[in-house]
Amino acid sequence: MKQRIVTGIVGGAVFVTMVWLGGWVFSLFISVLASLAMVELLKMKRIAPISVMGIISLLSMWLLLVPTNWFEQVVPFHFTKVEIFIFVILVLLMFTVITKNTFTFDQVGFVILSSVYVGFGFHYLIMTREIPDYGLYLVFFVLLLIWTTDSGAYFVGRKWGKNKLWPDISPKKTIEGSIGGIIAAVIVGLVFYAYFPIFPSYITAIMVILVASVFGQLGDLVESALKRHYSVKDSGNVLPGHGGILDRFDSLIYVMPILHLLQLI
User: Fold this and answer.
1) What confidence score (pLDDT) does residue 172 get?
2) What is the SS3 assignment for 6?
3) Are 110 and 44 in contact (CB under 8 A)?
4) What is the 3-state secondary structure (H, E, C) of 76-88?
5) Which catalysed reactions does the entry list for this protein (predicted)?
């Protein structure tokens, strides 16, 4: 427990500092975290990061991760990131034929889905921080909602939790805890918004709060499902007492793309 607390304090302080600094420092920091998260997924699948498939997976993830302005400065061709990613998919499918299914369709699916999950998740975190004037507050707002939801779900679940939320995926989570987490997020989120009105209306703020709280919990369940599928307790051990990068950022990288796709931020 002591190790967990120390790691949480130090890790939280480092992350908050990086968010505060923003700019290329934050983008580079997030790129490192995304790379570690991708390595964790590869190891779950028992793929060596330094291998043909491992390197292809990392390159695919970086393609989706990097901010568009970085990409345009490095790549001299007039292709978008999505167009190049589609081309990569077609090349991977071609490899299934060339290798006579040594490189299988399932492995192609793993590369694609992992790249999108990690790459786009962290990409939208970078993009949110880069929003002029409000980026810093938006990132802190979503972080606060996720942390509040987790804490509310934990304490409410411990005291009143009786009905399991999804026992096949996460045996300890309860419906009561989940609802408690959402209520806690609404209360804390509205207090935050009262002091920092970063949205055009309370309706938008409430929509962001509900999406972040509900889909944050779903993101946590997605990562739990991954760990159960690959029979691992934690995604990694880079954070002593907390597991891996995916264990800590599963909710955040799931919520950020959804908020952007729904045009809430």
Assistant:
1) 86
2) helix
3) no
4) CCCCCHHHHHHHH
5) a 1,2-diacyl-sn-glycero-3-phosphate + CTP + H(+) = a CDP-1,2-diacyl-sn-glycerol + diphosphate
Residue in 67, 1, 7, 44 with CA at minimum distance from that of residue 239:
7
Q: How many CA atoms lie within 13 A of 100 on its CB side?
A: 0
Residue 239 forms beta bridges with which residues? Answer: 243
Six-digit token pair at 87? 């081309």
* 162 vs 44: CA distance, rounded Å: 32
What spatial distance separates the first Cα and last Cα of the chain, rounded to whole Å?
36
Do residues 124 and 256 lie in contact, with contact meaning Cβ atoms separated by under 8 Å? yes
Measured N-to-C along each axis, helices 202-229 and 23-44 cross at an angle, to the nearest 10 degrees, of 30
Q: CB under 8 Å to 254, separation ≥6 — which residues?
A: 121, 215, 216, 218, 219, 222
Contact 239, 245 (CB under 8 A): yes
CA distances from 260 to 2, 97, 197, 243, 251 (A): 37, 37, 19, 28, 15
52-76 burial: b if 16+ Cβ within 10 Å, else e: ebbebbbebbbbbbbbeeebeeeee
User: Nearest-CA neighbor of 41 among 109, 130, 125?
Assistant: 109
Positions of the chain with pLDDT under 50: none
**H-type alpha helices, the chain:** 2-21, 23-44, 52-65, 68-74, 81-98, 105-115, 121-129, 135-160, 175-195, 202-229, 245-261
Q: What pLDDT sits at residue 113? A: 93
- The span from the CA of 49 to the CA of 68, in Å, is 25
Domain boundaries, the chain: 2-261
Chain segment 143-193, per-residue pLDDT in tens: 999 999 999 999 999 989 889 998 888 888 999 999 999 999 999 999 999
